[in-house]
Amino acid sequence: MEALPNFHLHRPSTIEEATAAMKAEPAARFVAGGTDLIVNMRRGLVETPALIDLNNVAEMQDIASDENDLIIGGAVTLDALADNRTVAHDFPAIAQAAAEVAGSTHRNVATVGGNLCLDTRCIFYNQSGWWRESNDFCLKYKGEICHVAPKSKRCFAVFSGDLAPALLVHGATVSIAGSRGERQIPLADLYRGDGAEYLTLETGDIVTGVSVPKTDTRSAYRKARVRGAIDFPLAGVAVGLRITDGRIAELRAALTACDTKPFLIDKLDAFRGKSVDDTLAQEFGEIVRQQTRPMRTTMSTPWYRRRVVARLARRLLLELSAS
Amino acid sequence: MTDQTTARHTEANVVLRQVGKPLERTDAEGKATGRTRYAGDYTMPGMLHAKVLRSDIASGKLKRLDASKARALPGVTAILTAEDLPDRLAATDMPGQTGQKRAATDRQILVREIIRHHGEPLALIAAETPAIADKAHDLIEYEIEPLPGVYETSAALQAGAPVVTEPDNIVGEHKIRKGDTEKGFAEADHIIENTFHTQFIEHAFLEPEVGLAWVDENGVINIRMSTQVIEHFRFIADAMGVPHNKVRILGAMVGGGFGGKEDITVELYLALLAQATRRPVRLAYTREDSFVGHGKRHPFDITHKTGVTKDGKITALEVTIRADSGAYVFLSPYVLLYCAVAAPGPYRIDNVKIDSKAIATNNMYTSAFRGFGAAQACVAYEAQMDEIAKAISIDRFELRRHNFMRTGDKTATGQTVESAIWSDKCMTQALAALGEPTNAEGPVKVGRGVATYQQSYGRITWFHDTAEAWVGIEVDGTVIVRSGVTDIGAGQASALGQIAAELLGVGLDDVVVYNSDSAVTPLAGTTTATRALYMTGRAAHKASEILRGRLVEFAASELGVRPEDVDLANGQAFVIDNPESAMSLKDLAARGASEGLQRSELAMFRAPFTDPIDEETGQGPVFPDFTYGCHAVEVAVDTETGEVTVLKSVGAHDIGQAINPQAVEGQIEGGALMGQGYALSEELIYQEGKLVSPSFSEYLIPTSMDMPEIKSIILESRSGLGPFGAKGIGEPSLTPVAPAIANAIADAIGTRVFDLPITPEKIVRALREADENA
Lengths: 323, 774
Known about the structure:
heterodimer, A: alpha+beta, Enolase-like, domain 1, 5-stranded antiparallel beta sheet, 4-stranded antiparallel beta sheet, 11 helices, 28% helix, 21% strand, globular, B: alpha+beta, Aldehyde Oxidoreductase, domain 3, Aldehyde Oxidoreductase, domain 4, 7-stranded mixed beta sheet, 5-stranded mixed beta sheet
């Protein structure tokens, strides 16, 4: 690990101050937990003269409810999210995903906004400057070639945030504050589908929070990884299930760590009206597998990641239908 | 802390007052409070900061190296390249040998022309600040022409393969021949053959390599550093072209070694820069430097062909061993020898044929790593035992019992083992400690496995190994021990204190141990090869016993009794049958001093000395002695995802005599963790010789979430060659762990993964293949 470069630190206490600080220094970066950004700065992957710390921004600190939605502030820590009773009870996938991120020391500072904006990862990217330079860098940063797919014009660095799939199956929207004022977009629209330019945010935009509609969706999240802590997912899957009169009213699944963005699985409407059994669960797993196309961005092979995500999806569906 | 026991001997057994007790180690408080100073904590006024520029490809020719821009950078004090070090080479042979002829395996210090591995050093930088050193690093211009490399041992042996090491890439070969394997196979009812593969792994010590060097007023190059081997001062002096007494290495408390700080690391770079600049220089490796800068554990391919009768008697064994030695020789020939000697395991086999080769490639060089080839051997022989049991349908534990060596049996090299062999006892106790089997549900399967082993402690006996220690008693009755032994975290220094305290009748609190200084403390040899307690402990024991004799004799004359009537304990000399008749050690030492009593002793302990084994047959003694034991585990395997959870982990080892049982438990627990990583998740991935996993985000050591509670069972046969009958535990605690886990997984899923690490992916693939074959 290299030394942390020098930077100015701004500590705004309102969203307005934060966006103003960014306007004054457009090359600055927002930071909250810093568990992703600071590591990348030390590796020379992020070069910035200034950081704008969002940890003191009052409007982004709370988990609250209104009549229709659960509202989670962007600066809420993953620990706070995982420990919240309402979340654990009514939105279990979200609490489970938060609890599965990295290790406890990370979760103690890492935030919801940070996890949603987590930089994409690749074995050719998350390396020191000396190491990357020996490959003439890569398409994601400073280079011309994607070493995962040399003929590609697109970067395949993988999005590995755990929270996003859990929020996707709950139909979450994100609130964004920026130079154009505030706006709300479906979470899926936060991601562009390119490993290099992976977010749709514009300069100065802040993910201030997430709204999750209250429904009677049962949900769960599981990730495949080698160790019991710290690892990014090799593949992660969230499943959301609504049952009416013993039959599927709605079935959703979303994946992480399988593409440059988290995404909802298509073609699940066909399951509506059916009851969950082993055969259906197997079909469901197969649909998930077919829509999973990971690239060789990690030490594990795409073959394993596709296979395991299908098995986990099938298992989660059976567990949810039995609960 | 002292014990009130008065009688020193009983009929039944030796009574020990200090040894064998979990005393608070002398290094415990400093570590717990953060006061212990590691090598990286030392600074000096006017200190420069060093950095190493390394090759970013594995095989090439250095066409141009231009440091002029870097040299012109303000704050840069020195840049050294191969041109600045004419004709200098660095030794890569076994460190700390005394008088043996050095192997002709010296390597270039900095690349002159040919680059043989990823990370090979091109230039050394010294600058006023770390930031300037970093900048200078980036300003050095170089051009490397890639050359064809060779990255697989099989390819390296082919005709026309690039030659990494002259003449044919074979850097080591050992043969062992015992009995007649043809006859043995003819007597067998079954012949079972399997090949096992182990991977490159990283020592992953907490403290990356670090040191600080300066030239003192006598022209001596002093190097304060993190190392297992202060005896490297000799190799450094040779490489510098200065007399041996002009280089001094001072150790500090070491933040983990595991063999990774056995070879030269930063000390030569520090010495060169300190000599060039005549200023103190500090060099601290980053984690990436550490990953690419020191030798790794050898990957091995080991094939066992075993003949066995239908009731489970092994009649013949042929083993073929190949090790990847990487781009430089280092300790590969010795690691290979350890593997060959260990290959039959703790089993009595009359007909044995072993062939082994270490082969050069353009991968990172491989060298010492806890277990030193014998650990890889165990991965193969213990998996083979389970495969044999499965193939001939007999109980795998009974198969082992049927074939275990017993005391007095000979090893495959014809060496008679005279110490206790408690393999059976250890296995039985380890299995019992696993308790009731855990229930399995659905796709999760539970399995159990054991591995037993035979692992040497002490060095190869033709090295004629020695160690020295000095023990003295001050006029106030307190005790000082001096010995060069490096303390790499296992309590090597504290153990010497405990031994001296035992023999001199004081508490451990009354002893101070000075260690790890090549100029001031008597040289004790390396902290490697599970030899520190055995060798240095015996030296301290010997010095203490001589000193004790003098004190007892003096006390006897003062108390008016015979010396055999006097014992030392609780800070007193007293008459055994009349403890009221006593004098304090303080009075005794002061009285003695005024009478000219010699209150210190320097002693040397010599291990058994032998000649090298026969080259054609491998026959002859190789090691002083061996430790025996067993590790047992229970695992749960998710057959859908391939995820493994280690549920229970038990190490049962006969270590002869625990000097400090708590320190022994530390070794067993650390070995259990390290072995679990070896079995399940750790692997250095090289692509065309380039390390693609030089960080802890891809190199996966177990976390606390992955570890079960580890049970340590300490058996004490008191039959070892160490102090008070101790054997060694540093390496033995690790050796059986990975094969025990591999066997448990095979037991759980009914098929075997033959390649370490056994990742979820490999398990899923093995299950799929088993399904397809069924």
